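The protein record passed on below.

***
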Amino acid sequence: MRVLIPVASAAAKVSRLAVARALLPGRRARISVKHGEVFTRRWVVEVMLDLIGYTVDRDLAALRLVEPACGSGAFVVPAVERLIASSASRRGALDGQALTALQAFDVQPQHVERCRQLVTKMLRSSGVPAAIATELAHQWIRQRDYLLSATAGANLIDQGCEPEADFVIGNPPYIRFDSIDDKVRAEYRARWPTMSGRADMYVGFYERALRSLKLGGRLAFICADRWMRNQYGSALRQLVARDHSVEAVWTMHDVDAFEAQVSSYPAITVMSRREQGEVVVAETSRSFDDGAARALAAWTLNSSDVAAEGVGYSAFRLPQWFSGEEMWPTGSPARIALIKRLNDNFESLHDPANGTRVGIGVTTGADKVYVLEHDDPRLDHIESDRLLKLAVASDTRSGGFNWGGRWLINPWKRSGELVDLADYPGLRAYLFEHRTRLAERHTAMANPRSWYRTIDKVSHELLSREKLLIQDMQTSLSPVFEDEGCYPHHNLYYVVSTNWDLHVLGGLLLSRVAQAFIEAYSVRMRGNTLRFQAQYLRRIRVPRYVDLGADTRQALRDAFIARDVRAATTAALNAYGLLAQDLD
């Protein structure tokens, strides 16, 4: 995989010096190899060409293939070999009519020159006259920033401009967005709006490539897969769902796909500009190699079977893909198929319209000021109605709720406004004692008159409600029931509902079915620890409470109270209409 320094064109009015500073020493890209360049192995390239249909049985000279960041030719050379072979069987040696058959970009002149030399030599060996070979090589391979090469920018299709590519293939640069020079970053963002938030540079390559596809055109990238399941990829996922289709996702985290060892969590994704249809998801292991890749490609393209197993891979064929900007799940192909099935047939756990809500506890910005232990003598000097019982993660670790005696100092009225400190002399004296520290917080500097606010407001209605509390950073989902009028701290997530008996819902969340959703969407940390954040909890699908039979409700309630994961899973399988093997 290449890490490229994005050199802007003169038309972009971005200085080359500014761009050259995009990756300074100490600004670490996520792939660390000499010169920041890692190239894709030949067999990976060959199978990607097969997946998009760039094969010698087609008249490739009449089509256009684009390589956005060609490097030293890992994709260009095999593509030109196929182009030459295709032409030889139809019209003989390539000629000037093939000027538009290939378009490769790179910002580094040494890469462009190397590719041109290789291509010229290949063309000359196939019988192309020297002058035509040189012309083709120079037209096909250009020193240009791919992200700045489209004058229509993000509106390439929307403005009615003619899309340019039948195929796009490659291994786009993987650079942290905040490692790019500010001016270059602004230019990229103006043209490619999916590069929002802290999106990596490859997100822009995806957008530019997808928007350039002709109707029916295909894209294949081998690239880091983080955009599929994090926030900065949401706009790109929405673009894919709206205008394109996903045809294949091969996860290749442990495969030796590059010519150097990298930790980039790559996946091959194949997408096209056509209506969404079937999708092949595949998971590979270290033993996945050239032969296995060709077998999997043949199955992907030609078989109608739902599932496949081979050396180093397992695969599943889904009838449809995930919609909108929602995160794409990860896991075994069978597990992804299960998640898709549940997504399509059940409601989201987080459904405020139907009375169920997932949220996070209060963030203060200064816990040492706002959170006091039960035996802290300062509590005696603060008005009692400014103190709330605070639930923290340690209160839930036994599997039941045991309040540890911590108090939250609350500067908020029920109306959502800050209290007037003149009405609370004890609170005022305490907060003024810490004013310097509180005023230095970003939230206070943004509004100096509110210097004593916590970052989050306190929602007083939450105090009187029964809640399921869920600790972040665990190996398994472990909801705890709380009805003691405590307010959750920011390291706890909560579920409240007007429709559910929370003991029954707790049984569902305790089950391996709910755990499957978290494993599919959550970031996995060291020690097999998962993040149990609201964005992942909201991905859980649940049956409607009214659709559960009395026996199922009782079984879930009993399993939750007993903290019996096995019994909860058995009852949950019945609630979802699943079999035990569906979770394997």
The longest helix spans residues 109-125.
